[in-house]
Amino acid sequence: MSDPAVSNNSLRELVTFRVGDQDFCIDIMMVREIRGWTPATLLPHAPSYVLGVINLRGSVVPIVDLAARLGLAPSVPDPRHVIVIAVVGTQTVGFLVNAVSDIMGIDQADVQPTPDVTSEVTRAFIEGVIVTDERMLRVIDIKTVLPKCMESEDAQ
Amino acid sequence: MSASAEIRQTFFQECDELLEALDDGLYEIDQGVADGEVDAETVNAVFRSVHSIKGGAAAFGLDDLVHFAHQFETVLDVMRDGQLVPNEDVMKVCHRAADHLSDLVAAGRDERVLEGSTGADLIKKLSEIGGREATTGSSEQQSVDAGVSFQPLGLSLPMDFTFEEPAENDFSIQLIPSASLYSSGNDVSFLLRELIELGEVKVSVDTSELPDFDEMDCSDAYFKWSIDLRTTEAASSVRDVFEFVDGMCELDVTSREPSAKPSGETEEEDDDGPPALPLLNGASEPDAVEPPRQQSGRSEGKDKTGAQSGPKATVRVNLDLVDRLINMVGELVINQAVLTQCIDDAGLLDRGDLATSLAEFKNLARDIQESVMAIRAQSVKPLFQRMARIVREAAELSGKDADFQTEEETTEVDKTIIERLVDPLTHMIRNAVDHGLESRDDRIAAGKPDQGTIMLSAAHRSGRVLIEVSDDGAGINRPKVLKIATEKGLVSPDAQLKDSEIDNLLFMPGFSTADKVSNLSGRGVGMDVVKSAIQKLGGRVNIQSTPGKGTTMSISLPLTLAVLDGMVVDVAGQTMVVPITAIVETLRPKAGDIHRLGAETSVVSVRNNLVPIIDLGVVFGHRSQPMAISDMVLLLVESDNGTSWALAVDQIFDQRQVVIKGLETNYGHVPGVAAATILGDGNIALIIDPEETAHRNGPVIDQRDLALFDEVS
Amino acid sequence: MSTKVLAIDDSRTIREMLKHTLSSGGFDVLLAEDGLDGVEKLENFNPDLVITDINMPRMDGFGVIEAIRRTEKFNGLPILVLTTESAQELKERAKKSGATGWIVKPFDDEKLIGTIRRITV
């Protein structure tokens, strides 16, 4: 499930952040920049976890509330929130998180299968977990958290 | 892109230019036919266009194209020689051949094969006119010859030759060059070099004819050469070495080994040439159609020495680059607006020098934007030329005689707009020929010239492009249109419609005034499709008609698709943009004008018409409860199905040009939203697609309900 | 110094092909887009070989050959005629006006290069 460009290399760098009261991380290769929260323009008919679109230097970028997307309590965005701008293929998407913690280097071997204790909803979006002394980091499979295009939502 | 792909692209670009030149030339000849004097150079130029297409096509193995171009070229060649005097019938075939040639080029570009018998029919017609058989010097023979003239010289001879005669032959060659051999740039040394490549060579020179130095003419030839050659090649190959110098020397090639080949090479040599061709055919043909191979390593990249000087200095640029530039300039304009707003917010705008600089900045940014947009602009000429063909075909099918005229075809419009105009314009032209022009008899009866005229013109009008299609036909038969519309329930029987309103009924869906479905327009599309296609381009269609004089349909278009004129509105606290082209009018309704119809639907009466209201705030989910309509502003929009809708917004902020930003790249399509834009404050506003909004969200109201309601109220 | 070839053809496609083939063969190429352009470029470029198309605006290939042969400096200059016509009469006419040889379009890269190598010193 991990990105092929990354999986060949056993050493990975991950950006870790907090969503709700849990720790998550994504591959640093996906992250284009991190910026503060600014109000987004609402997108009509969007799924509830899509907060809207913002202007990122002339590009129209959708913002996903990662908490809501992962099945946790939806965030109430305020200026202390942070947006992680990620590039997936040709798509640029922003993810609203509580705070970015740090950047850490890990060996791919340190990524363990997701334990059963995690909630079902969350598990669908997780590639694996990394257990350190004080916390458990969930590695997000970023392709699964992208906003679903409207047309497919409509089809349901 | 590989070199061969690049050259292929060049070829098709050049074909477009050549086809355009061909069309131009044929029209000039038409003119010449009418005036009784055809310019020879025009015929020559037309010939060259077809000839060049053929030449390039052969290199890419486009056999159908080569074959057809050759047949066409033969006719033009005969015309060039003065053996064929062009008349109207000949020109008709030539025009059709040009059309077909264009189809073949398109097919070649798309790598598909053209179906149908048009090509074969035309080839037959062309050969009748040309009076020369297609096969004389035909493409088949060419591809044979293409290989043959160099086959014997080839460095690496293909294996195919081994079957002929692997044994070694001994040849004795006597060569007495004449002066012309040297003056043509040839040299005995070149010939010897080639012979050495064929096998073992022994050379002796007889210098006995060499005069004394004083008498010597250094441009004359005095030597006699005797060459012994031992080779595995056949006599014909040896003979072919001397192909270039044939007639410039005395040559005698004798096989000295009777066992190797039947005797008499010397005498039969001349017969040996052409008949040997079929043998080589198989080996050489694949070569002939093979695109130029890419040679690795030694290519020296882009040349500078070869920089060509065209009649107009132009550069060819990747369209993506231009679009990126347009985008960035769009950013610049937005940025300038943001900056102005910031300075205003800081209360600094009343500082004279700052205000002046800002104004200059603004003008500069706009100028740059316009200049960059101009890069994407193209002349409408190729589009108009395509329409010439449509007129021809439509006239032929409907049995009418139509002259096609164009005006200001050098007018430039955005490339994408031109591309998307093809279909609607085609339909309008067909319609003008089919429905606009009267039959020949009717025209004569009306005292008009028996040939009808279709006029296509383009012009720039106050920042927009105006394209007009006119005919000099009978004009719209309004009583008939009204009758049909009434029969089809499109208008109520007692409706009082103005002339222009009747004319606009033509744009209603499913409307067709033809009594029987004709070949041309009865293709399941009506003028409503034309209208919606134009509206999608941010344009409007208008129709004007004078009974007995004719009809003019005009299309007004924006200069570019990168920006649009928008009305910036407030929709329940969200700033949104409505394209101005879609808005018929804006109104503040009085409470008495608003009626409720059913539980959910409100309508507003506008000049006795009831128009359903769509509350955009509700439709886009920005508010759950509808607001009191009387507190809102209504934007009257006309949908392509002829119905009107009133979009209710909280207030109108502004009218301005906005740069269009796609939502699709990073997200996807949002129902009712055409695109996004970035406002002066840096925030994003969505651009509404009124058409889609109305279709998806408009209340479904039966026309009869409205009529009923009308009676009640 | 590499062999200098002046290639004259009014078709951009053919010019690009010639340019590509000849450059990859190690020749120094200058392109001209019609006969007159070619003759004008002749003096300065001083080529070792000229390749010319026949059917061209302003001045055709025969005109080019005749112009070259009229100039003493160039009267031994090898000239290859590039033509889609394989008709014998055209070859004869080219020969009569002083062409060294001909190439029938579409040409094969290797053959073209081989021929040029053989007729240039």
Automatic annotation (TrEMBL), chain A:
Q: Which residues form the CheW-like domain?
A: 11-151
Superkingdom of the organism of origin: Bacteria
Q: Which SMART domains match?
A: CheW (SM00260)
The record's listing under CDD domains reads:
CheW
PROSITE patterns xref list = CHEW (PS50851)
The name of this protein is Chemotaxis protein CheW
Source species of the chain = Arenibacterium halophilum
Q: In the record, what lineage is assigned to the organism producing the protein?
A: Bacteria, Pseudomonadati, Pseudomonadota, Alphaproteobacteria, Rhodobacterales
UniProtKB/TrEMBL annotation, chain B:
Domain HPt: where?
1-108
Domain Histidine kinase per the UniProt entry, residue ranges? 353-561
Task: Point out residues bearing the modification Phosphohistidine.
Answer: H51
EC number(s) per entry: 2.7.13.3
Q: What does this protein do?
A: Involved in the transmission of sensory signals from the chemoreceptors to the flagellar motors. CheA is autophosphorylated; it can transfer its phosphate group to either CheB or CheY.
Q: Known SMART domains for this protein?
A: CheW, H-kinase_dim, HATPase_c, HPT
- The molecule here is called Chemotaxis protein CheA
Give the start-end ranges of region Disordered: 253-312
Can the keyword Transmembrane be found in this entry's annotation?
no
TrEMBL record, chain C:
Q: Mind telling me which InterPro entries this protein's record contains?
A: Bact_response_regulator (IPR050595), CheY-like_superfamily (IPR011006), Sig_transdc_resp-reg_receiver (IPR001789)
Would you tell me the protein name for this molecule?
Response regulator
Q: What is the lineage of its organism?
A: Bacteria, Pseudomonadati, Pseudomonadota, Alphaproteobacteria, Rhodobacterales
Domain of life, per UniProt, equals: Bacteria
Q: From which source organism is this entry?
A: Arenibacterium halophilum
Q: Fetch the Pfam families from UniProt.
A: Response_reg
Instruction: Respond yes or no to whether keyword tRNA processing is given for this record.
Output: no
Q: Which PROSITE patterns match?
A: RESPONSE_REGULATORY (PS50110)
Q: Which SUPFAM superfamilies match?
A: CheY-like
Keywords (A to Z) from UniProt: Phosphoprotein
Residues recorded as bearing 4-aspartylphosphate in the entry? D53
> Do the record's keywords include Manganese?
no
- Which residue range or ranges hold the Response regulatory domain? 4-120
Which PANTHER family has this protein been placed in? CHEMOTAXIS TWO-COMPONENT RESPONSE REGULATOR, STRESS RESPONSE REGULATOR PROTEIN 1
